[in-house]
Amino acid sequence: MDRDIRTAREARAPTKRESSTHRDARDDGGLALEEPRWRSLLTSVRTVQMELKRSSPERQIGLAGNPAAPESALLVTELRLARRLPPSYRDFLAFSDGWPSFFEGASLLGTGDIGRRSPAESANQRWIARGRLLPFGADRTGTSLFAFDTSVRLGDGELPVVAWVGGLGIDCRCFTSFLATVLQLCRAELAAVKARGLLASPPPPGGPQWLAAG
């Protein structure tokens, strides 16, 4: 566990790519508005997952989040946790108060659940009990867990993210970077699905015939 959490992140400054906003939307007057990068990433993740869902309708993939959390719920949550939420995740909750079955069966936790103990966290209970990890996502079996590392508060107020997905350890600078990683994993899975579909497709009538080389 200690090996997985690299304290060198504390000294790493945010890169231009990890900037929290980018100019993308426009208001009615035609002026460019700043859209949070986490939101554009979330939209991209949903788009890819819609394609994955079409290929496997039986998969538990949540394509929509919960209604937005009011400011009062965010304040109560921060009082309960005795700390401020990372800015990007706070903004996410103000947009969607949690997201069921977000990735690999794990849900992003809303204001009513974040920081509360769950049986699914038993594998990392020692670190959670010490207050070092603040889980913000988990599945029901404990196979997948997303958590903030509260031992490091970055200069922009963000908290690093550590995650475990099916035995794979993921170490990200912040929630926005975590979403970028999820998007990469989803795109890789979709590419693999399309490749399998291409190989499984029969040749078109009258088209060239291919022989499998052994």
Describe this structure in words.
With 214 residues, this protein is α+β, with helices and mostly antiparallel strands. It has a single domain, classed as SMI1/KNR4-like (3-Layer(aba) Sandwich), CATH 3.40.1580. The chain is built from five helices and eight strands, in the order ββαααββαββββα. A six-stranded antiparallel sheet has the order 3-4-5-6-7-8. A two-stranded antiparallel ribbon has the order 1-2. A hairpin with a 2-residue loop joins strand 7 and strand 8. It is globular, with a radius of gyration of 20 Å. The termini are far apart.
Q: What is the CATH first-level class name? A: Alpha Beta
What is the distance, rounded to the nearest whole angstrom, between the alpha carbons of the first and last residues? 44 Å
Reading the helices and strands in chain order gives: EEHHHEEHEEEEH
Q: Sheet with the most strands? A: 6 strands, antiparallel
Q: According to CATH, what is the topology?
A: SMI1/KNR4-like
Q: Structural class, from helix and strand content?
A: alpha+beta
Oligomer: single chain
Strand numbers in spatial order across the main sheet: 3-4-5-6-7-8
What is the general shape?
globular
In total, how many beta strands? 8
CATH architecture: 3-Layer(aba) Sandwich
- Strand content of the residues, in percent? 15-25%
Please compute the radius of gyration using only Cα atoms. 20 Å
Helical stretch tally: 5
